[in-house]
Input
Amino acid sequence: MTVDDFVSNRSDNRPFEDVLRARLSRRTVMAGSLAAAATTFFAQGTAGAAVASRGNGRGNGQGQTDLIGFEPVTLANGGGVNPSISPDYEYQVLIPWGTPILAPYPEHVNGSKSAADQEVQVGIGHDGMWFFPLSRKGDHGVICINHEFGRNSHVFGDESVTVTIGEDEVVLPISLEQVRLSQAAHGVSVVEVASTGGTWDVVRGGYNRRITPNTPVEFSGPVAGHPALGDPSRPSFGTLNNCSSGYTPWGTYVTCEENFNGYFGSSLGDDFVPNAAQDRYGFTSTGFGYGWELFDSRWDLSSADADGEYNRFGWCVEIDPMNPGATPVKRTAMGRFKHEGVAFAVGRGGRIVAYMGDDQRFDYIYKFVSDSNYKSMRARGMSPLDHGKLYTARFNEDGSGDWLELTIDNPALAAEFADQGEVLVNARVAADILGATPMDRPEWTTVAPDGQVYCTLTNNSRRTEADAANPLAPNADGHIIRWTDTDQFTGTSFEWDIYIIAETTHGTEESFADADGLWADPDGRIWIQTDGGQKDGLNNQMLVSDPQTGQISRLLTGVPGDEITGLTVTADRRTLFANTQHPGNGDPTLTNFPVENEVPDGTTYPRDCTFVITRKDGGIVGS
Ligand code: FEO
Ligand code: CA
Ligand code: CA
Ligand code: CA
Output
């Protein structure tokens, strides 16, 4: 979303672009070119890491390796009205926005729908997801899927009413019913799915569930019951702007609340003045223009009903997909920021480790480490996600890094905050004080089988100064960073390098920009999904890369206006699920997907949906 573009970090912390420029300039004195700089970077990977070879003339980019053997989607085929997939693969469409999953199973209508219908249908804005298998055969499971956002103009369909505010034309709700519709399109869906004879469909079974901004939730960890959440007798409801997600070794789904600030507004209009904490999280009088506050005072920052409500969002939320009656739990020990996603690893001593990005220009990367062995904690009835240390990352220009703990025991934080709860609620401010490194919009993280942690930094349009000593500027197309922590994920230092600078792929068949979704599969392939303006005529896309060889092969391209996001596989890894989000940006003159008209008909609204992707020969996906 372009809403990530503004900067709320006003600290003096040294930005990552500066660290990177310094580190690269040291390495380019001899080399003198971007390609050589990138090569040096890859070859310089952390101890035991793969040595990649991008930019060293390794051939035509289609060379086949053991890991990636499929024929890629070419530049020529990657920019159409409809998706393109590798000739070695095929896709079908599953759970488009509006698919009925609960009684009375109302069918999707092209146009406007009721809030009551949307509450029992799949939401919009398909994003992070995970497949929880119900069979070993890879033909049956439960998908938990996030619904990041949907514009009013799209969600309200034929009922949209455009309002002019100043110079802006916006679609605001005209009733509480429309607010409820918008809210029900958000949140999470839990959907049982199965394949019959190779065709996937929804199972109308007991696992199916919608979790929306109006579903009861619980708070757990140090912030539960904290005064920052307002009146503790006021129940907590909901999750929203669920971007990416993670899954725990104990079989639960963790959904991440990203741009929560945008759903609040103020009845004071231009007279609204956010307090310092609200300011650091980007709250304004209009938010992103959803207008929920017009009919639902819980979202009005100037109403007593919103007291502390704005601090009830910005968390990781744990959902048990196998227990439809279980209340979603906000795990506050993992901190409050614009959580893009979370990648879990099991660290030394069986401690659970979680890597997380805060997606805003110049915001930070975080890590959570549980206090002890996750199995023994669970056996004692404790959640490992409630008791642990939260850190933020500082990247040093010599390739080392430090994890800085967000703890009230640090005098610098004790001078600012009353208790650990306040530190966690204001994690961004605490990280400012600790001197974390402002990054170029951290998106997804993933942990590779060799122990390296990868993170997409989608772009930073502020990187504008280009000169011989700073060969990466401008870096409007982002890069992927990776690091190795000491002490089996649990240590407080690390070594880092850059995996890929997106700009180095432009003009080649490996072209991509604005990496966002990311997944390291068990064989070591690094999957990359994009969200942003692609180069070389491409739509947004999904690619598979091999850190051992530097190969990047394009598996799928989406449709105009969309992003490709979310990625999960069946237990046998013969089936992969990935999403198109906001196809056509909701505009039926750009695309009607999943209706595949060669010429868009202008009336059939495109719908966010899931691709079910298989190799035609039944092989492992990505191979
Ligand atoms: Fe939800 Fe940062 O994309
Ligand atoms: Ca998105
Ligand atoms: Ca994203
Ligand atoms: Ca993005």
Remarks:
- Residues 26-64, 465-471 have pLDDT under 50 and may be disordered.
